[in-house]
Amino acid sequence: GVWGQRHLRYLKQHRKVLYTNLLTSGKLNSYLADIDERATTMMFRLIEQMADKEGITEQLKAADQMAWVGAMNNIRNGATEIVNAELIYL
Question: ∠ CA 67-45-57 to the nearest 5 degrees?
Answer without folding.
Answer: 30
